[in-house]
């Protein structure tokens, strides 16, 4: 499991919106023993504060996690606080429950092999819909609009900004050929974006010893639901990843998103790991 989410890593590298804080615990020799990232959100928004924390393996069992969490709670003040635990590990559960947290969200990581014989696109597209690769500098506004509509109820994904998109386009893993957009009509002459499947490739050591593909973002505009685009775009994205020589693919999905879980199980995915969001109201 990666110790921090992609979002936390990006903000550690590039900074983030106002209100973010980085917390570091040093050992007696001055080396980092633990790190936490806290996001307070916009002032007056009423949103929960949110944090992630990680303890260096050599420093575990020494109270570093407790120190980090206590400091993050102090910085959050009287706001409800959510803390992500990557992996449903006994130590994380013990720390969270000792501080009065309860489980708020469960994010599943699902995986499937890409070595099967059933990965050629099977689901047909509507006759008036075509799939094309994303074009940086041209398709961003349309994608952000559909992303916001598709994930309107999602606390993170639905709030992406042009800066969030720009940061990911600048990442070494970004490949527009694996960012598939489903259009009705000509995108340069009033066409409508209906949905997309953005794939990603993790380098060796990131999600396993070998490169691993990811169903990074799969979103369908609410007005295009019922056309079979989710399955059609999933099939095409998986075929793209296999064509790159990858042997495994992962994705993340909320455990309570039963429709999405069923879609992915129907395409051969099974549960691999979980991330837990713990919540505490002061």
UniProtKB/TrEMBL annotation:
MF (Gene Ontology): mycothiol synthase activity
Keyword Transferase: yes
InterPro entries for this protein: Acyl_CoA_acyltransferase, Bact_Acetyltransf, GNAT_dom, Mycothiol_AcTrfase
Highest rank taxon of the organism: Bacteria
Alphabetized UniProt keyword annotations: Acyltransferase, Repeat, Transferase
Recorded family membership: Belongs to the acetyltransferase family. MshD subfamily.
Free-text function comment from the UniProt entry: Catalyzes the transfer of acetyl from acetyl-CoA to desacetylmycothiol (Cys-GlcN-Ins) to form mycothiol.
NCBIfam families recorded: mycothiol_MshD
Name of the featured protein: Mycothiol acetyltransferase
Organism: Geodermatophilus dictyosporus
Gene encoding the protein: mshD
């Amino acid at each position: 499991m990666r110790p921090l989410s992609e979002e936390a890593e990006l903000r550690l590298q590039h900074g983030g919106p106002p209100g973010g804080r980085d917390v570091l615990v040093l050992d007696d020799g001055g080396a980092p023993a633990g790190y936490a990232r806290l996001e307070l959100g916009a002032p007056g928004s009423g949103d929960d504060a949110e944090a992630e924390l990680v303890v260096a393996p050599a420093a575990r069992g020494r109270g570093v996690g407790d120190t980090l969490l206590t400091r993050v709670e102090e910085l959050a003040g009287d706001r409800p606080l959510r803390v992500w635990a990557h992996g449903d590990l006994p130590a994380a559960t013990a720390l969270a429950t000792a501080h009065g947290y309860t489980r708020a969200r469960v994010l599943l990581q699902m995986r499937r092999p890409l070595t099967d014989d059933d990965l050629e696109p099977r689901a047909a597209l509507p006759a008036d819909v075509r799939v094309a690769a994303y074009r940086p500098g041209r398709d961003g506004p349309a994608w952000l609009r559909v992303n916001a509509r598709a994930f309107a109820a999602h606390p993170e994904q639905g709030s992406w900004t042009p800066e969030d998109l720009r940061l990911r386009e600048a990442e070494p893993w970004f490949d527009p050929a694996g960012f598939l957009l489903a259009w009705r009509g000509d995108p340069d002459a009033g066409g409508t974006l209906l949905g997309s499947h953005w794939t990603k490739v993790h380098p060796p050591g990131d999600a396993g010893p070998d490169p691993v593909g990811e169903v990074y973002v799969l979103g369908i505009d609410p007005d295009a639901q019922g056309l079979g685009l989710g399955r059609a775009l999933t099939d095409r994205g998986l075929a793209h990843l296999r064509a790159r020589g990858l042997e495994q693919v992962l994705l993340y999905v909320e455990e309570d998103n039963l429709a999405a879980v069923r879609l992915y199980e129907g395409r051969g995915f099974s549960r691999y790991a979980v991330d837990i969001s713990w919540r505490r109201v002061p």
